[in-house]
Amino acid sequence: xxxxxxxxxxxxxxxxxxxxxxxxxxxxxxxxxxxxxxxxxxxxxxxxxxxxxxxxxxxxxxxxxxxxxxxxxxxxxxxxxxxxxxxxxxxxxxxxxxxxxxxxxxxxxxxxxxxxxxxxxxxxxxxxxxxxxxxxxxxxxxxxxxxxxxxxxxxxxxxxxxxxxxxxxxxxxxxxxxxxxxxxxxxxxxxxxxxxxxxxxxxxxxxxxxxxxxxxxxxxxxxxxxxxxxxxxxxxxxxxxxxxxxxxxxxxxxxxxxxxxxxxxxxxxxxxxxxxxxxxxxxxxxxxxxxxxxxxxxxxxxxxxxxxxxxxxxxxxxxxxxxxxxxxxxxxxxxxxxxxxxxxxxxxxxxxxxxxxxxxxxxxxxxxxxxxxxxxxxxxxxxxxxxxxxxxxxxxxxxxxxxxxxxxxxxxxxxxxxxxxxxxxxxxxxxxxxxxxxxxxxxxxxxxx
Amino acid sequence: xxxxxxxxxxxxxxxxxxxxxxxxxxxxxxxxxxxxxxxxxxxxxxxxxxxxxxxxxxxxxxxxxxxxxxxxxxxxxxxxxxxxxxxxxxxxxxxxxxxxxxxxxxxxxxxxxxxxxxxxxxxxxxxxxxxxxxxxxxxxxxxxxxxxxxxxxxxxxxxxxxxxxxxxxxxxxxxxxxxxxxxxxxxxxxxxxxxxxxxxxxxxxxxxxxxxxxxxxxxxxxxxxxxxxxxxxxxxxxxxxxxxxxxxxxxxxxxxxxxxxxxxxxxxxxxxxxxxxxxxxxxxxxxxxxxxxxxxxxxxxxxxxxxxxxxxxxxxxxxxxxxxxxxxxxxxxxxxxxxxxxxxxxxxxxxxxxxxxxxxxxxxxxxxxxxxxxxxxxxxxxxxxxxxxxxxxxxxxxxxxxxxxxxxxxxxxxxxxxxxxxxxxxxxxxxxxxxxxxxxxxxxxxxxx
Lengths: 449, 449
Fold this sequence. Notes:
The structure is a homodimer.
Chain A: E1 4-8, H1 12-24, E2 29-34, H2 46-50, H3 65-72, E3 75-78, E4 80-86, E5 91-96, E6 102-106, E7 109-112, E8 116-118, E9 131-133, H4 137-148, E10 154-158, H5 162-173, E11 177-182, H6 193-205, E12 209-212, E13 216-220, E14 228-231, E15 234-237, E16 240-243, E17 247-249, H7 252-256, E18 280-282, E19 289-290, E20 297-298, H8 303-317, E21 331-335, E22 338-344, H9 347-352, E23 357-365, E24 376-384, E25 390-397, H10 405-413, H11 418-423, H12 438-447
Parallel strand pairs in A: 1-2, 1-7, 2-3, 7-18, 9-16, 10-11, 10-16, 11-12
Antiparallel strand pairs in A: 4-5, 5-6, 8-17, 13-14, 14-15, 19-20, 21-22, 22-25, 23-24, 24-25
Helix pairs in contact in A: 1-8
C-alpha cells in the first residue's frame, strides 16, 4: 500500500508540499487537512479583495477540494482540526469543527504546515463585536462586509505591519476614514525609520489618520459592539476595528505533540524540513528557518518562504534529497502609489545581529529626467563597515520600481559587496531607468564612507 | 602647471571621464573636444524626441559648453575634429569643421572617446536626399523634421537593430506608415529568434510593415530624393529612409595615430583604459572591452558600458587605480507596449563562444492571475549544460517588467547557477508579481533538462 502522507494546513506551504510530492511520485497517497473552510487561497490577495479590486473571494482560491482531487489526485478535508500527533500509533487525533466529533486519522508521514496566528495585544475591549484580525479568507470576507455596510464610515486599524498597512490602504481606497494606530514611532518595522517615513508621507497624502508612538489603551463600546478607540486621553469614534499587532508561529499542534521548537519559537526543523519526530516534517511559517545574512534562526512571516519550504518537503516526501537554506525575508508591498521593497537586514536588524553596520539612503531618478513620468526612487543599502559586504536593502518608488529589489536579492544571495554593486551592468533605457542605476548611485555613495 | 588633459568626444564616455577626473582632482586642466555641434546629450533619448514625447532637443542635453565650464570647470570645444595624435610633440592635429582651418592642440594626457560610426550597407541609392542614419543629435533633429513635414507619410527603416526598432516605434507612434526591412530572418540580433518573434508580433500589432529575410537592393529616386525601396522584385514608395545596418567602432583617429586595435576592431586597452601609446587612454564604444561571460574581447555598443569605462579612466586620470572588468551587454528597449531586456549571451552567442549551451523560454504571469492588469512575461534563460551555469537571459513583458532583467545581471555577475536562481528569495505581492517568480519558474524548467 502506498505511503499515507497527511499534510496539516492547506495554504502556501501545505499545498505546495502536497502538489510537489504528488507530482514527483503520483503513487503517493496525499491528504491535506485544514481546520478552516478554505484551502489553497492567496492570503496576500485579501487586501485587494477587501478593497473591491478583486470582485469575488472565489477569485483568490486556486483549488477547492473537489478540483484538487480531480486535477492533482490530492484529497483535502476542510473543517477538521488536528489536535495531536500520536507517534506510537501513527495517528492524528482530530476534531470535526462543525460537529465537535473526535476523529482519528492514520498517517505514515506527516507535514505540519499550521502557519501563524495573530498576536493578541494587551488592549481591553478585544471581545467587542466588529473587532477582528485578518489572517484568513473568512476574516477578509467579514471585513469586506463591514466595509460595505451602510453607515460604516470609520475604521480603526491597530498596528501598522504588513496586514495593517494593506488594510489601511484597501479601506481608504473604498472611501472609508482610516485611523491607523501603532505603538512604535514608525509604521512597518520591516524597514528602517527613514524608509518608514516615506511610507507615512504616502499614507497621510491619501488621508489616512496616523497615530504613532502612542499605544491604544482600549476599544470602547457600550452595547457589545465596538464604537471607539481610546489612545492616551483621546478617543476616536469608529464603526469597526482591525487588529494587526504581529503574528506568531502556530505551534499548538507541535507543542501538544511534544515536537521541539527552535529558538525563534517556531518548530525546529533540519534543512530538509524534518522535525525531531521521525517521519514528521514541518514547513511554512510554523517552521523555523535561517536568515541567510545573519545566519540566525528565524520565524519567517512570508508566503514566498513558506512555499519554498513546502516545495523542499514535497520533494523529500517523494524521495529526493532537497534542502532549504534560508530566507532573506524579501517582500514588496503596495501602499497607495508606492512600492515598498525590502530584503536582508535593516540597519536596526544588522546592528542587533552583531554586525558593524552602516547604511545610506539615496534618492535618485527612476527614469531619465527628461522622460515623461520621471519620478524618484529611494534606495537604502545596509552594509558591513570595512568589508563593504551588502547586508540588506530597501527601495521605495512607483509601481515600475517594485521588482528592482530583486537585484539586491541576487546580490545578497551571492554575497556581493558595494564595489560589485557599483559596477553591475544594469539595464538602461530612458523610459525605464537612468544611465547610472539608483542602486549604483547608492553603492557609490556608500563606498565614499 | 597642471596636467593638460584632452578628451576627444563629448558624450557618455568622454563626459563621464572628464567629470569624474575633474571632480576627484579639481586642479586638473580638462578640455573636451567634439567634432559635432553638441556635447553631453542622451543618444538613447533620440527616438522619444523623434516621436514627440520629449518636446525639445535641448531637453536631451545635460550640459552645453558654457554650463560645463561654469558648473564643472571643464572646457569644451565643439566643431573641432581631431585628426591625429603626434606623440613625439604631445600635440593633436585638428581641423575646425566650419572653416577647415588646421589647429594644433597640446596635451599631456589624452582620452579617445570617439564612439561609433554607422555601417554603410551595400545598397545603391544611399546618396539620395532624405536617406539618413541616426547616430547623432543632429540626425534626430533632421528625422523629426522629416517626420513632421506635411506629405511625408511613409518611411523605410532599413535594419532592425536597436536604432531601427526604436525609430520604427517612434515614427509609427507619430502615425507614419513604417516599412521595416532586415536582411536577417528576425529583428534585433541581440536576442534569440524565439524572443525576436515576440518583438515582431508587437511590431505587427502596431501596424509596422515587416520585411524580414529579404535584403533591400536599392533605394529608388529619380530626382535626387528617395522615393522608394526595392526589395526582391517588389518596390515600396516611401517619403524618407533611415538606415541602421549596424555600427562599428570609430577608430579613425587611433588608426591614423598608429594606436593598436584589438581583435574586435576597437582600440586595444588594458583594464585601466590605457592604450599602447603612453599617456593615451581610450574609453567608450571605440575602446575594446571584455564580455564578462565569454571572456572574449568585444566592441560594446552601449552607453552604460561607455559611461563605466569613462568613469574608470576619469579615476585613473585623477591618480586612482581603477579598473573596468567588462560588460554583460545588458540592455532594455521599449518596443510599443513591450519591454525587451537582455543580458549576457544569447543561445546563439553562447554556442558561437564555445559553450555547451542550452536554453529555455518560459511564459509566465507577471502578477497574480486574479489581479487586474495581470499579463504575461517571457523569460529565456541560457545556461551551460552539465554545470547549470547561467550564461545569459532575455525577458519580454510590459513596462513593469523592464528592470527585472537586472536580477539576472546580478546573478550572471556572481556566476550563479540555475539551482541558485530557482531558490532566490524574490519579492512577491499580487500587484507586482507571483508567488513563484517567472525567473524561478524558468530556472526550474531548465533544471528538468
